[in-house]
Amino acid sequence: MNKLTTFSTMLGLVFLLSSTALAEPKVDTSDLPPPPDGTQAEAEPVTDEKALENLMLEVLQVYLEMQNYLAEDSTWRVARSAGLIALKAKNFDLKLVPEDFNPMYRTLPKKLRVSARKMYKAKSLADLRLGFKGLSKPMTTWANLSTPVGIDVIYCPVANATWLQNKGPTKNPYYGSQMLTSGQIVWSGRTIAELEKAQEEANSARPDDSEED
Questions:
Q1: Assigned architecture for domain 51-197
Q2: pLDDT tens track of the chain, all 213 residues?
Q3: Residue 47 has what DSSP assignment?
Q4: Residue 134's beta-bridge partner residues?
Q5: Are 149 and 77 in contact (CB under 8 A)?
Q6: Which of 82, 133, 185, 198 could form a disulfide with 119 if both were Cys (CB 3.0 to 4.6 A apart)?
């Protein structure tokens, strides 16, 4: 009797396992065609509205050091700084820039990289100054679009080139001590004090949220 019961139990387990295997068959999907175009779920591209601006502000700090050295007739660290700018521009991911941005913004990293690489290979003060003209073109484009605080864009009619510098006495990077103060301001950014004043005026013009009718 015990053997019969054991046999019946084992037979039931075999039947149960067989039923489960039949109910959930494995399907080989390796030969199935891909889903039609447009039906796949695609992740939205990640963008950052401040990414390019942050890059340009980083480049600006290096650029201003180069401008000062050239105005002092010095080649000290100028070529190395140009190499740093080229590296920053090369490593920048253009996919971060939103599609609706001004198309001129999207060309800035490449133009910076090309111009900075030429400066990096320069061997003389004259070559560095010539390369600085090229580097200043995308920087001027950016300044006109972004209006950085505390920065002036100055044009040298003799060199037929512009450059960016901090507000203050003109320091011509193209001729240095020969014509240090030669240049005309063609665009003048707001000072930090002017920006702070504008922000205060904007804040004072807003209605007080704590006041209720």
A1: Up-down Bundle (1.20)
A2: 555 455 455 545 444 445 544 444 555 555 666 666 655 555 666 899 999 999 999 999 999 999 999 999 999 999 999 999 999 999 999 999 999 999 999 999 999 999 999 999 999 999 999 999 999 999 999 999 999 999 999 999 999 999 999 999 999 999 999 999 999 999 998 887 777 777 787 788 776 655 554
A3: -
A4: none
A5: no
A6: 82
Cβ atoms < 10 Å from Cβ of 118: 18
Cβ proximity of 128 and 75 under 8 Å: yes
- Domain definitions of the chain by residue range: 51-197
Pairing of strands 161-166, 184-188: unpaired
165 - beta bridge partners? Answer: 152
Q: Burial code of 143-156, b = ≥16 C-beta within 10 A, e = fewer?
A: beebebeebbbbbb
Q: Position 122: which residue type? A: A
Give the C-alpha separation, 52 to 100, whole Å.
Answer: 13
In this structure, which amino acid lies at residue 51? A
Q: Is 150 left (phi over 0), alpha (psi -120 to 50) or beta?
A: left
Distance, CA of 188 to CA of 143 (rounded, Å): 10
One-letter amino acid for residue 119 of the chain: M
Q: What is the largest CA-CA distance in the chain?
A: 118
Among candidates 101, 103, 109, which has minimal Cα distance to 49? 101
> Is the four-CA dihedral 193, 195, 198, 202 of positive or negative sign?
negative
What tokens appear for 135 in the block? 């580097």
